[in-house]
């Protein structure tokens, strides 16, 4: 079965994945290591979430709307893989696994107006795969990750600016690892792959200041650790009819152990800047079909359970449903894949400096599109 079916499927699954749990953006896929021969790919993605909420009475200047507090963003991915012999394959992957870009518009009267935050990451994964037999293989490698973050948090309580906080976490890097195994039956395009991604800790030079009415604190410099979470990916595919592929997976991420807690922010508010109460499980299921030697397409659905937690103002979402479509065109040794994904974001409630819940976010959505060019040598 041609890999174009999977190319279309992958784009449909990953487009707009920012709405997965926590600040997940790519899902940390390693599918490229299973491509035949020497293979290179370049991928682009664009996501446009639309997330807004309303303030609960008595916290600011009335039942104000937050306005759309999310920004669209672009992603870039690169991968290169080579078979050294019939058993050993080695590749390198570049992706941007975690990210956030939040910006509450001013002039709304919403208690968090003017607050904004960014979280940026880049990762390079050196990955190897060794075939123990025609059906069993193991894979593993090392991941180098670079992270930076910044936040400006404003909380207005009945027009009083209770918090006026700024924090800058400078770029820092750290190492982690990847390990897993796969079972395949090539004749029916069956593959089940289990992959563990370790947590990665980075230590950041941090500058903080709060000029609000609560806990006015002079500028402080310190070292703050960020640990991006460990995760497990279980991915599968199998042929179900001629030129037809069933695919999907489950991703677990240990978000309950993730937090960013700068010293001044904790002293002022008594809690973390960003934290999550529960781990997340993200499910996907789809069907791919090759219509001709050149064309293939796919449709997929995604689901993440809504936990019902009070969430941070910097991430007011909780679970989702999604629908994805993908298409791929193959000519000679080149495969061009395109995908789109529409996401119905789960409702969430937020907290502020003195109350929870403080805001309610409902009926929000996101749209993502992606394109990938893959070349087999």
TrEMBL record:
One of its GO terms (cellular component) is cell outer membrane. It comes from the Bacteria. Residues 1-20 form the signal peptide. This is Long-chain fatty acid transport protein. Keywords: Cell outer membrane, Membrane, Signal, Transmembrane, Transmembrane beta strand. Its main location: membrane. The keyword Amino-acid biosynthesis does not apply. It is a multi-pass membrane protein. It is found in: Cell outer membrane. Belongs to the OmpP1/FadL family. GO terms for molecular function: long-chain fatty acid transporting porin activity.
């Amino acid at each position: 079965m041609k890999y174009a079916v999977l190319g279309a499927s992958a784009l449909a699954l990953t487009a707009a994945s920012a709405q997965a749990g926590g600040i997940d953006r790519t899902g940390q896929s390693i599918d490229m290591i299973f491509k035949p021969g020497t293979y290179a790919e370049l991928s682009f993605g664009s996501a446009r979430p639309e997330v807004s909420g309303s303030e609960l009475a008595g916290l600011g200047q009335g039942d104000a709307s937050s306005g759309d507090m999310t920004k669209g963003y672009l992603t870039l991915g690169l991968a290169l893989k080579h078979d050294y012999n019939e058993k050993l394959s080695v590749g390198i992957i570049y992706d941007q696994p975690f990210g956030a870009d939040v910006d509450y518009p001013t002039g709304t009267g919403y208690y968090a107006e003017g607050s904004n935050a960014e979280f940026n990451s880049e990762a390079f994964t050196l990955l190897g795969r060794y075939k123990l037999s025609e059906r069993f293989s193991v894979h593993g490698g090392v991941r180098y990750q670079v992270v930076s973050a910044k936040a400006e948090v404003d909380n207005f309580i009945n027009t009083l600016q209770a918090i006026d906080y700024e924090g800058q976490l400078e770029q820092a890097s750290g190492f982690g690892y990847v390990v897993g195994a796969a079972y395949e039956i090539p004749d029916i395009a069956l593959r089940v792959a289990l992959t563990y991604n370790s947590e990665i800790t980075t230590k950041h030079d941090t500058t903080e200041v709060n000029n609000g009415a609560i806990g006015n604190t002079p500028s402080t410099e310190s070292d703050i650790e960020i640990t991006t979470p460990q995760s497990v990916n279980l991915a599968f595919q199998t042929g179900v009819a001629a030129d037809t592929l069933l695919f999907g997976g489950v991703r677990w991420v240990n978000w309950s152990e993730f937090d960013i807690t700068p010293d001044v922010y904790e002293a002022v508010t008594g809690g973390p800047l960003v934290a999550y109460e529960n781990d997340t499980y993200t499910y996907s299921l789809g069907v791919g079909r090759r219509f001709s030697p050149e064309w293939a397409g796919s449709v997929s659905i995604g689901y993440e359970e809504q936990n019902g937690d009070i969430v941070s103002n910097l991430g007011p979402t909780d679970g989702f449903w999604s629908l994805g479509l993908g298409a791929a065109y193959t000519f000679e040794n080149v495969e061009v894949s395109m995908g789109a994904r529409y996401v119905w974001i789960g409702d969430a409630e937020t907290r502020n400096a003195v109350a929870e819940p403080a805001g309610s976010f409902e009926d929000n959505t996101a749209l993502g599109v992606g394109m990938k060019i893959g070349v087999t040598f």
